[in-house]
Every structure is written in structure tokens, then in C-alpha cells.
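Go through this one:
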Amino acid sequence: MTDEAIVSMVRKKLKDATLVSYSEIASCAERAGRHRLATMLLDLEENASDQVPLLLSMGEFELALRKSLESSHTDLIYLTLFHMERTMPPDDVRRVLHSEPQYAEAIHLLATFYIATHADSSKLGNHTTTRNGMVFDWLLIYICGICLDNIWHEVSSANHDVLTSFTERNTDEKLKKLKDAMAKYNSAKLPINAKLTEEHMELLMEQRKLDDKATGGPNVVYVGMSLSDTIRHLCMDAAREPKSLQVAAAIAKKFKVPEKRFYRVKIKALAETLQWDTLHKKAPPCGFKAFAIACLHQGEKGQAESYASRITQPDEKFDTLVHLQMWTAALDMAVKLKDPDKLSSVRNNCPLPDIHAQIDHAAQQLGFI
């Protein structure tokens, strides 16, 4: 049987089984030597925390990086980057990180980490050279894509400008160094480096505007945050200043953040700050299931149930009811749809004997047994 046929069969069989992990099935496929099948099955897994580690163990580093960035989960992004760093040659890491503009945030996070933890730079091994306690050449591999041994004077100067911009406390000085670096990259015919530097400058300028207006309150400093963290904090600040949501949306649009990714960050931030009224206002492109699950994670089952009731697509609604353990509602829906697979799904996931009895009775009434 082809990989595509197996994936189609698994998807059909498990479409209502929300508690089943596709990553576990993918792991079995990988152990059986079906690497391509395992990768295809992992693409069905919605939980990035299960998806990314297995992709790394399979050697699918670039796919793991893409999935971790899509999840906006900083710990997963770092897990992926550090794993790549340990297992891949520096040139290969550089090639991956500079293959797509969307990886710029990963470069920023990695650079920020090593600047902040320079005292622990010995763990980088023989790849590291330090000057005044700061890590230089390893960061250059990521930020500039060029090893120090092979760079010419102008690019070396640009690299140094980029690196030292991270240590500058004054935003004007950061921008000045980055502007100089961008000019040198353009002169050296390195358009990707120049574009990434320009985008980082634009983000810094947006962050400075936010800090000047004290957008996040007295305890929040936006300058130096990643793009995702900037959007997340703005959404969280909407509890204090509702207009912050509009600012978050504008920044997401300016930096071309995919709509579904933006809404995942937004939903999580609003749920964390208990902004239920704001969540109610508009149907998101990622569907109400994501809303319901975010509420459940905050211990707000009542809010989660209200979002489940707003889902109109039958399969998605049933899947959400099972996820929320709303067994009676899920059973009623399965009976209404006269769907034996959905009845089986409720029975397999629900631990309550009285629900089992109702399912058996319904199955008899509908002629399934």
C-alpha cells in the first residue's frame, strides 16, 4: 500500500478520535523504516510539542524549524536550533537559516540567546572565538552566513556592526549600526543580509514607538523582543488598552505574519489575560476550536463550551466536543448525524459507564448492532 493511501486511511479512521496522537503513529512508521510515511503522518499532528521532537529525531531539521516557528513556541524554536547546532556542520546550519526569509526570527532568537549568555559560551566548543567575553564568529555564521576565515574587510565590518547592535542599550545607536551594516551588505552584493538587517531596523523602530508611548505599561520594554513576543504582549495589553489589538494587527500585517499564525498568538494571549469579551467579538480564520482549547487550558470550561456551541462545521464541532469531554453533547450529535464512527469515538474516549449504556442503546435503535 502506498504512503498516500495509508495516510488517507488513517485520517479517515481517526478523524473523530481527538485523543489519539498522530506523532505516536508516525513514530511506529519511522521504526518500520517508512520515513516518508512518518513525515506525512506528522503533518497531521496539531500539537507542535509532539511533532517537533520526532521530526528532529528523524533528521527533518528544516521541517522541524518551520513547524516550531509556526507554533510561536519559543522553547520549541530553541530546542530545534540547539539540536541543529549539535548535529549539523556550521555551513549546513547557515544554509538552512538563510534559505527562507521566515527564518529571520530564528536567527534573531539565537543571536539574542548567545549575547545574553556569553559567559556560558564554552558550550559552543571549538567553533567559538571570544573577544572581551562576547561570542563573535558563531553568531556571524547565523546572522551573516559567512565564516570569519573567508570574509573580506567590508563584510567583516558589517558583521561587526550587526553583532554590536545587540549589545547597545541606546536604540538610536542600534539603528545607526544596523544602517551602516545594511549599506555595507548592499555594497558587497549580499541582498538577503541587507534585507534581514532592514527588517530588523523596521521592527526596532516600531518597538521604539511602542516604548515611547508606554504602550505596554511601565514594566514592558518592547525594544529587543522578537516579532511574535511583540504581538503577544500587545494582545495581552489589550486588557488595559483595547487599541493595542489594532496595533498588534497592524504590525502583523506590516511584517507579513501569516493570518492563522497571528490568530494563534492572539488567541493564546487573550486567553492568558482572561479577555473573554474580546475573544467573543469576531470569528477567527483558524476556527473556534482553537478558542475553545485555549479557554480549556486556562481552566475556563464554561467559556470553552460557549465557543464549541459556535462551531458550525459538524466534524470540527464533534471533534471539539470530544476534546472538551462534553460526552452527552457529543453523543447527541453522533445520534443526530446517524454516524456509527462518531458513536464509536465517544465510546472509546469516554470513561463513563452510563454514557456507554446510552451509546449501546442508540446503536441498537439506529440499527448499527
User: Anything to note?
Assistant: Residues 118 and 256 are 32 Å apart (CA to CA).
